[in-house]
Design brief:
The structure is a homodimer. By secondary structure, chain A is an all-alpha fold. Chain A has one domain: Farnesyl Diphosphate Synthase (Orthogonal Bundle), CATH 1.10.600. The first copy, chain A, contains 14 helices and two strands. In chain A, strands 1-2 form a two-stranded antiparallel ribbon. In chain A, β1 and β2 form a beta hairpin. In chain A, α3 packs across α9. Chain A is globular and about 50 Å long. The first copy, chain A, starts with 10 loop residues before the first helix and ends with a helix. In chain A, about 55% of the residues are buried. The C terminus of chain A is likely disordered. At the A-B interface, α2, α6, α7 and α8 of A face α2, α6, α7 and α8 of B.
Chain lengths: ~325, ~325
C-alpha cells in the first residue's frame, strides 16, 4: 500500500476542523427558522444536529479544495448535501422502512416527535436543501447555470434512479435471496450516488477539468462501494464506516449484505482492492489529495483491521 | 357579481383541453423512467396518473398565458408543480398523517404499494420535480437565473414555512380547539402557498411586471383561501373545491375547518367576498383574464350553490 505520503496527514484533526466549519454553516443556513417556536422546526434541527461525521459535506469541501475552491464557495452546497442525507436517514428510520429506534445513540426522530412529524421533518429537510441551493445570496459566487447543473446532478443522485431507487430496491430485497450484483446495485444507489455527487459537486464548483472530473468520479465510485462494504462488515460490531459508533440502530429485518454473500474474508479483499483503486485515481494530484487519500484509507482500514480475530458471522447472516 | 363577460367563457372545455396538454407533458417528463420494470416507478406513476383536476399546473399555464407566454415555456414548471402536489397527497394520505384509504375513488398509494413504497414514491416525486426544473433541455427557453428564482420561490411555498409547515400545524391542531386565525394560517400554508406559487411562477416566466405580479399574487392569495374554505364546505358531501367528487377519502380524525368555527352561512359569505376580491384584481386585464376569472367563480359558486338546502352540519363538526 502507498502509505508513505499519508502518515504525515492528521485525518482526525482535518475531520474535526471541517466538521466545525460545516456545523457553523448549517447553523447559519437554518438560523432564519424560529427553532423553538414550533415542533416542525425542532424536528428539522433534530435531524441535523448533532449529526454524524459529516462525510458528504467534507467530501465536497475536500474535492473543492483539491481544485482550488475556497470553502465559502462550497459550503452552501455542502449544507444542502448534509440536509439531504439527514432527510434520508429520518425517512429510512421510519417504521414503514427500517423501523429503527436508535440513531447515533439517540432516539430516532419518530421516537421523539411521532411518525407524522418525522415524515414531515424529512420532507422539510429535502425541500429546504433545494431552497438553500437556489438562494442567490448564498450561491452568488457560482454562475446560475452551474448551480442548476449541480441541482440536476444532485436530484439524479437522490431520486428514483439513485438514493430513493436504492431504498426501494432494498425494501423489496428484504428477506429475499439476492445475488452480489443486486447488493452492489443497491449499494451504488442507496449510498454511493450521494457520496459520488458530493465529490463531483465540489469539483465542478471549483472548475475541475473534464479529465479531473473523470478521475474524481472514479475515486467516488470506488469510495462509495468501499464505504458500504465497510459498513456491512462493521455492522457486526455496531460501528459505521466513517468511524462513529452506532450510526444506525440495528433493525430486525434481514437484509442482504456484501459479507453475507461473499463472506467476510472476500469482502475484506474487495475493500483492499477498492482502496488501491481509490489511491490510483488520486495519484496524479500528489500531496494536494492527501485528505481524500486519508479518507479512503480510513474507511477501508477500519473495517479490515477491526474484528479480525472474531470468527466470521456471515453464516448466521446468510 | 360581474357575470356578463364570463358567461361566454366555456370553463369546462378550457379545463379539459389544458388537462390533456398537461397529462401529455407529464407523460413526456416521466417517459424516460422504465415504468413497468420496478415497483418504485409504478408507484410514482400511480401518484400522478390519472390525477385530479390539475388545478395547479392549469393556474400556471393560465397566468403565463395572461402575460403572453407560450404554454411550451410553462409546461415543465407546470409538471413540476403537479408532481409536488402528487407527492404531498401521497404523504398526507399515509397512516402517520391523515390515514386515508381512498383518493379520487381509488385506493391510496400505500394501500396499493405498502407504506414504505408509498413513502419513497412521495420522496421520489418531490425529488424528480426539481430534476425536471433543473433540466436544461426542458427549461432552455428560460434564463438560468429565472429558473433558480422559481425554484427558490417554490421551495419556500412547499417547505417548512409553507406546505410542510401547514401540514405540521394541521397535525398538531388535530382534536384541539383552534381559532379562526389558526385555521386560516394552516389553509394559507397547506393549500394556498402552492396555488399562489403556481400563479406567480407562470407570471414570472412570462415576464410579468412588478405591478402585474402584485395583482396576480393578491388574486392567488384570495383564491387559495377560497379554495380551502370551499373544500371545507364541500367536504360535507364528498366533493372537492375543484369539482372532482371524492378528491380525498374521509379520514376519521377531527380537524378544525372554516365552517366548523364560523358556521356554514358565514363561511359562504366569506367565499362570496373572496370571489369579489379575486375579480377585482383581474379587472384591469379585461377579457384576457377570462380563464382565471372563471376558475375563481367555479371554485366559489359550487360551494355556495351546493347543499344550500341542507341544514348546516357545523354543530356536528365542531
Amino acid at each position: 500500500m502507498q502509505t508513505d505520503s499519508l502518515n504525515s496527514f492528521d485525518l482526525d484533526a482535518y475531520l474535526s476542523e471541517q466538521s466545525t466549519v460545516i456545523d457553523h454553516a448549517l447553523e447559519t443556513c437554518l438560523e432564519h427558522y424560529p427553532s423553538d417556536s414550533t415542533t416542525i422546526f425542532r424536528a428539522l434541527r433534530y435531524g441535523v444536529f448533532p449529526g454524524g461525521k459529516r462525510i458528504r459535506p467534507i467530501l465536497a469541501l475536500a474535492a473543492g479544495e483539491l481544485f482550488g475552491a475556497a470553502p465559502v464557495r462550497i459550503l452552501p452546497f455542502a449544507c444542502a448535501l448534509e440536509m439531504i442525507h439527514a432527510y434520508s436517514l429520518i425517512h429510512d428510520d421510519l417504521p414503514a422502512l427500517d423501523d429503527d429506534d436508535l440513531r447515533r445513540n439517540a432516539p430516532t426522530a419518530h421516537k421523539v416527535f411521532g411518525e407524522g412529524m418525522a415524515l414531515l421533518a424529512g420532507d422539510g429537510l429535502l425541500t429546504e436543501a433545494f431552497h438553500i441551493l437556489s438562494n442567490p445570496e448564498l450561491t452568488r459566487c457560482v454562475p446560475a447555470a452551474t448551480v442548476l447543473r449541480v441541482i440536476h446532478e444532485l436530484t439524479r443522485a437522490v431520486g428514483v434512479l439513485g438514493l430513493v431507487g436504492g431504498q426501494a430496491m432494498d425494501l423489496e430485497a428484504e428477506n429475499q435471496a439476492v445475488d452480489l450484483a443486486t447488493v452492489e446495485f443497491i449499494h451504488v444507489r442507496k449510498t454511493g450516488a450521494l457520496l459520488l455527487a458530493s465529490l463531483r459537486i465540489g469539483a465542478q464548483i471549483a472548475g475541475a477539468s473534464a479529465e479531473e472530473l473523470v478521475r474524481i468520479s472514479r475515486y467516488g465510485e470506488y469510495l462509495g462501494l468501499a464505504f458500504q462494504i465497510a459498513d456491512d462488515i462493521l455492522d457486526f460490531q455496531g460501528e459505521d464506516a466513517a468511524g462513529a459508533s452506532s450510526e444506525s440502530g440495528h433493525n430486525e429485518k434481514r437484509k442482504a449484505t456484501y459479507p453475507s454473500i461473499v463472506g467476510i474474508v472476500q469482502a475484506r479483499e474487495r475493500l483492499t482492492e477498492l482502496l488501491q483503486l481509490c489511491l490510483q485515481e488520486l495519484a496524479p494530484f500528489g500531496a494536494r489529495a492527501a485528505p481524500l487519500q486519508a479518507i479512503a484509507r480510513h474507511v477501508v482500514t477500519r473495517a479490515i483491521r477491526s474484528n479480525s480475530e472474531k470468527s466470521p458471522k456471515e453464516s448466521n447472516a446468510q
